User: Fold this.
Amino acid sequence: MTLHIHTPLLESRALSLAAGCTVWLKLEALQPSGSFKLRGIGHACEVYRARGAQRFVSSSGGNAGLAVAYAGRALGVPVTVVVPETTSARAVELLKQEHAAVVVVGSSWQEANQYAQGLLREGDAFIHPFDDPLLWTGHASMIDEVARAGVKPDAVVLSVGGGGLLSGVVEGLQRNGWQDVPVLAVETEGAASLHAAMAAGQPVELDAIASVASSLGAKRVADQALACTQAHPVIAERVSDRQALQACEDFLRDQRILVEPACGAALALAYAPQRLAGYRNILVIVCGGATATLEQIRTWLRDATR
Ligand code: PLV
Assistant:
């Protein structure tokens, strides 16, 4: 028994028509915590508990924090999540539903993270939102499921924040012998830390994040994410906030599932005509996201300047 579930893999008629090729969806939005994060974080939490952890500490007010809170409740381990003041009321409400202790500190993730490090006592396990090999191994299971279903895509489309999802998907492709399947790694223009690192050939720290896709807002990607781009074919793609938001609206209409702009970024590549020209069979990781509401997405879309 794992904490995550085996998610549906389905062919989307609407997205296939929009993209001009067959589009398969891996519906990670249906994980109990609302995103793919539960695969890697569930695995990490199980390992840390087996090593004796008596508390899990997270510094994410987003989907990683929610996955830790879900895993902790399921495993009977108390969870403390430190979130910055920018975290939405909805996210705090969801964390409290999972009975996590929520501490609100600092104006950014960096400050909340620093505070969380200071809380660590003996017996605590810190669960990083994206930079931990245990997470990547857990995320890789989504590719095992696709391989077992007998669907081999010509490319995988996914979103990149800190690059944990990218690292896990590349691990999954490699362990299934799919070294020849490229990854199209999508970021919003204001959160394009992987794109910047690939262009520079080394890790780069962005000055600021300027995107509504806050779940993609890692100023610097994990070193492993950049290493993946050197070991596996990875193409960096960027979309605007407006495209990511519109993709959330379109996906709700087409598949009746609400996702965050972080996930809309990957979907936007399929909705934009011609961006997938030359491919016949695409797999999109519908990574999900539980913290944005439809009202919020519509407000952002109305006000989007980029
Ligand atoms: N979210 C991280 C933030 O990283 C978090 O703390 O929850 N799609 C969704 C819905 C996500 O929540 C995230 C990461 C990503 C994609 C990107 O995954 P990553 O970070 O592994 O590249 C800043």
